[in-house]
Amino acid sequence: MSATGTGAAEAPRYTKKDFESDQDVRWCPGCGDYAVLSAVQKSMPDLGIPRENIVFISGIGCSSRFPYYMNTYGFHTIHGRAPAIATGLRVARPDLKVFVVTGDGDGLSIGGNHMLHVLRRNVNLTILLFNNRIYGLTKGQYSPTSEQGKITKSTPMGSADRPVNPIAFALGCGATFVARTVDRHIAHMEETIKRAAAHRGTGFVEILQNCNVYNDLAWNVLYDKEQRLAHEMKLEHGKPLVFGPVDARQALIMDGVKPVVAPAKETPPDRLWIHDESNLNAAKILADLFAPDYPVPVGVFAAVSAPVYEEIVLDQEQRAIADKGVGEIAKLLKSGDTWKIE
Amino acid sequence: MSETAARAVTAPKPRRDLARAVVRFAGDSGDGMQLTGEQFTLESAVAGSDLATLPNFPAEIRAPAGTLFGVSSFQLQFGSQRVYTPGDRLDCLVAMNPAALKVHVDDLKPGGLLIVNTTAFDRRNLDKAGYAANPLDDPTLAERYRLHKVDMTALTLEAIQDLPLNTKEKDRTKNFFALGLVSWIYTRPLDPTLDWIKKKFAKNATIAEANVRVLKAGHAFGETAEIFSECYQLEPAEMAPGLYRAMTGNRALAWGLLAAAERSKVPIVYGAYPITPASGILEELAMHKRFRIRTIQAEDEIAAASAAIGASFGGAVGVTASSGPGIALKGEAIGLAVTAELPLVIFDIQRGGPSTGLPTKTEQADLMQALYGRNSEAPVVVLAPATPGDCFFIAYEAVRIATKYMVPVIVLSDGFLANGSEPWRIPDPSTLPPIEVHFRTDPAGFFPYLRDPATLGRPWVRPGTPGLEHRIGGIEKQDGTGDISYDPDNHDHMVRTRAEKVRRVAQEIPPTSINGPATGDLLVVGWGGTYGAITAAVERSQADGKAVASVHLRHLNPLPPDLGHILREYRRVLVPEINSGQLVRVLRAEYLVDAVGFNRVRGLPLATEDICDTINQLLEGH
Q1: What is the C-alpha separation between B364 and B543, in angstroms, rounded?
Q2: Bridging pattern class, strands A338-341 and B520-527
């Protein structure tokens, strides 16, 4: 086991091509996953980490095929368990840069428990959660992020469950870095992935992703030019929360303890809500907002510093060794109450 | 503790020589019976006795006082000859309250020594135990047993009346009165307990003083009170020379891992979720952070197994543990380790089931789960320790096999081995077989599923190794390249290869040791924690001149290569198990032998006497 740090100093210069594996990509034509794969491969050279120190761990689902297409170390595991497997890997090997690739079903349904605990522990890894609001690999059943009343093969009269909001979930679990990006906003996606990867602790990114076969245009509010212009609200640290077309800018402000939308022009500057990534309470309010009544926030909701699980584990080990030296089994066996038989 | 100290305790009353004795301390779960038993065990070990213990306690942490289900007990057998089991029937029962008497008195041999704490026999406690009348007033009790009514609470309070402690604190020391008294009866040295008190209560001189005084008061009571006419002494057992310590199965499993980590120079990551009776291993390992071992208390059983697998992928040895219910939850993850061909060690500390079952009681009913309890064809290596001390060697062996063959290894311990203890001759760790781990670093010609021709193990690569970047996963892979493959013939080949890899572990198994004649009328085959009961029964039959032998399997998958031949050298084969017949089914299927089972599933170890009876019946042709 070696110390934390991913060997950034000696990283060679890479291009996107260095991160493309020799495997044929097998997603459906037109799937949003292609754009995410391309953005991740393009982001890798900028991380400044030697390729051999990067590991992609995934669970089960369309998104979880991801590791096969990355020319790094990779492990395609079992449904929902990638965060737990990645936690074990980080504890064993804190020198590696670990990514977890998951989906709305993998990460929030069967693996919801592990997602909760990896986030609260603040394990130093990056989670990319592809949210297409549908089970794609099993051919089109509703998912835990599907809207209530969703008509699918398993819910011909509409789904009865209320959806979970990944951003609100992550913040509720105590996540230290929470962001949302969109598969069709390439530049924003790359920028967000790089920021998440640089975060010390768990970097959680919800990627709104299109399943063109079973749930086409689920995120049309951010694809359609006009809707996007009307609703997308870019979160930028230190800048006011405003959105909408230039001639009809809207401001998101607080009226008492309730967020409201008001024309930006008529809002006095001291009432503007200045986005602060270190304010977790504010992030929790933003997490619940969505069109049509509110803007759709994209970008970094929160980024705070907190102790990292495996660093504490390592520190305890180092302190124990500093205190009494490396353990010796021969000595341990003879410790405590013993007696001799001649 | 020196031999002189052990001999220093002398009793002026006549001492009768004994070969062995079975003693049980029983009381309320708050009466400190486990501690009393553990201290008596240590005293007996220091006196040179061989011994075996059986702690037995309720699943409830603070069961209501005085109730039948709140009774906690600790039994041990100690002797001047080999002692294989905690014993069947009791020579001496200490009952601290009416409930303890009611639950345990039928296990006492007629004429056995019965010591009761009369103070606790008040109306309230009698009601709780369901006694209409005080059983101590019934003359048949004293006719049937050598009954000693001792007002322990009063004697305890008297011994420490001047100490500035409240009544509750004073009352809590009465278990040491019982310990002192029984120590006198069996001529056990008090020094180990006096040392323990000194260490345990180093920061509270008054409590320490109280415990010392009460212990000595109990001892003196035996010596001076008119009621005890005699006491007993035991010659030290003839045990192999060496340095000894008391060892429980859970601690031995933990220390076996520490030894493996030290020897292999490969760190261990231990993922576990608290569950009785396995939690003790996690707690033990967490104390030894200096030993290349990292523990993760995971959010659930699945995460615990998954974290271990993640660690193995990273080039550490992943270990996870649980009891039956947790192993069921880990099944899918174990299957991943099977197909990813990563080392993984899984401890299953079996307990009574199904479902929650009897969490604090022992059972051997997870053999089939270990062998087959996963989807599809998912063979793993299965090992089982025979005694608490053997757990050390089995844990070490599990790591050695898992890393050599790149395969999951399940270790089947049980509640009896986990908590039971035995005097254990401390091994020299340098005599353990080496664990040689080679991580592949050479990129030339590398594929993740290339195989070692001898073991069929695939290369283990630590992520971080340049030029060896690769992807593995749960989807079927083409042998060699490791690329995803749905080819029918390749799948058939991989199913057979994974099975063959496990079969080849047979080359690690030493020749089976036979306890008794190499051919004869009856072979008794056992596995796991029944070793003591079976060995004692077989040796008793042999002493009666019967042509009976036993073998005890530590390798359950693969089975020892010489087993089939051995089975055919006997007219009958008997397989005693604490399940409804699992190994017997495997042996019948594997070797087409007409083996019969002896099965009791009571949450308790098998009784030597019952196995003896079955042996006799079989030999008489019933």
Answers
A1: 28
A2: unpaired
- ipTM confidence score: 0.96
CA B176 vs CA B76, B181, B216, B220: distances in Å: 17, 8, 9, 12
* Residue A40 near residue A74 (C-beta atoms within 8 A): no
What is the model's pLDDT at position B621?
81
Query: Is pLDDT of A8 > 60?
Result: no
| Interface membership of A123 toward B (CB under 8 Å) | no
Q: For residue range B290-304, list pLDDT tens digits in order.
A: 998 999 999 999 999
Q: Give the residue on A whose Cα is nearest the Cα of B319.
A: A88
Is B329 part of the contact surface with chain A (CB cutoff 8 Å)? no
For B20, the token pair is 């062995």
Q: Is the pLDDT of residue A85 over 70?
A: yes
Q: Tell me what pLDDT residue B391 has.
A: 98
For the segment B386-411, what is each residue's pLDDT rounded down to a tens digit? 999 999 999 999 999 999 999 999 99
pLDDT band at A10 (very low <50, low <70, confident <90, very high): low
pLDDT of res. B3: 38
CA distance B196 to B491: 60
Q: Please give the single-letter amino acid code of residue A204.
A: F
* The token pair that represents B414 in the structure block: 């049980």
pLDDT at B9 over 50: no
Indicate whether B209 pLDDT > 90. Answer: yes
Q: How would you label B528-540 residue by residue, b for 16+ Cβ within 10 Å and e otherwise?
A: bbbbbbbbbbbbb
Could you give the 3-state DSSP secondary structure of residue B425?
strand
Q: Which domains does chain B have, with CATH numbers?
A: 3-234 (3.40.920.10), 246-430 (3.40.50.970), 520-619 (3.40.50.920)
Of the candidates A191, A150, A173, which has an alpha carbon nearest to the alpha carbon of residue A42?
A191
The tokens of A210 are what?
A: 């299109």
Whether residue B254 lies within 8 A of chain A, CB to CB, comes out as no
Q: How far apart are CA A120 and CA A114, in angstroms?
A: 10
What is residue B528's predicted lDDT score, i.e. its pLDDT?
98
**What is the SS3 assignment for chain A?**
CCCCCCCHHHCCCCCHHHHECCCCCCCCCCCCHHHHHHHHHHHHHHHCCCHHHEEEEECCCCHHHHHHHECCEEEECCCCCHHHHHHHHHHHCCCCEEEEEEEHHHHHHHCHHHHHHHHHHCCCCEEEEEECCEECCCCCEECCCCCCCCCECCECCCCCCCCCCHHHHHHHCCCCEEEEEECCCHHHHHHHHHHHHHCCCCEEEEEECCECCCECCCCHHHHCHHHHHHHEEEECCCCECEECCHHHCEEEEEECCEEEEEEHHHCCHHHCCECCCCCHHHHHHHHCCCCCCCCEEEEEEEECCCCCHHHHHHHHHHHHHHHHCCCCHHHHHCCCCEEEEC
Work out the minimum CA distance from B599 to partner chain A, whole angstroms: 36
Chain A residue numbers touching B475 (CB-CB < 8 A):
76
Q: Mind listing the pLDDT tens digit for each residue in B465-519?
A: 999 999 999 999 999 999 999 999 999 999 999 999 999 999 999 999 999 999 9
Q: Which of B255, B303, B472 sits opposite A75 (nearest CB)?
A: B472
Region B200-222 average pLDDT: 95
Q: Round the average pLDDT of chain B to a whole number and report it.
A: 95
- pLDDT at residue number B15: 84
Per cent of chain B over pLDDT 90 is: 92
Structural domains of chain A in order of their starting residue, each with its CATH number: 8-239+275-316 (3.40.50.970), 245-273 (no CATH)
**Phi, psi (deg, nearest 5) at residue A32:** -65, -20
Q: What pLDDT is stored for residue B7 in this prediction?
A: 38
- C-beta atoms of A92 and B314 within 8 A: yes
- List the single best residue of B265, B306, B319 to mutate versus A (max A Cβ within 10 A): B306
Å between A15 CA and nearest CA of chain B:
16
